[in-house]
Amino acid sequence: MITLTNSAVERVREMMAKHQDKIGLRIGVTESGCSGYSYALDFAEIATDADSVIEQDGVKIVIQQSSLPLLDGMELDFVKQGLNQSFKFNNPNVVSSCGCGESFSVTK
Description:
Blueprint: E1 3-4, H1 6-17, E2 24-32, E3 36-44, E4 51-56, E5 59-64, H2 68-71, E6 75-81, E7 84-90, E8 94-97, E9 104-106
Parallel strand pairs: 1-6, 2-5
Antiparallel strand pairs: 2-3, 4-5, 6-7, 8-9
């Protein structure tokens, strides 16, 4: 199960208001970087049989089922620090991440 904080729900809602032709936010994992995996965010145009759709507070999140084991239990947050703002992935499956913070590894 993946959950969103209130600030993440609000941010996704703001983003979706500008992209009304999309059905939700797609969250995925790709093999990348020096630690093995990185997160991928995009707008979802459709959901296929290979996807799971989670709805929280009226916001839809589309996740490719193959990414679910790596994301299970994750909380998506949206953080503002001064002029910087970004999504933060609080993933209990991560055992290490690279120095730049762009990729991570998990236990298998």
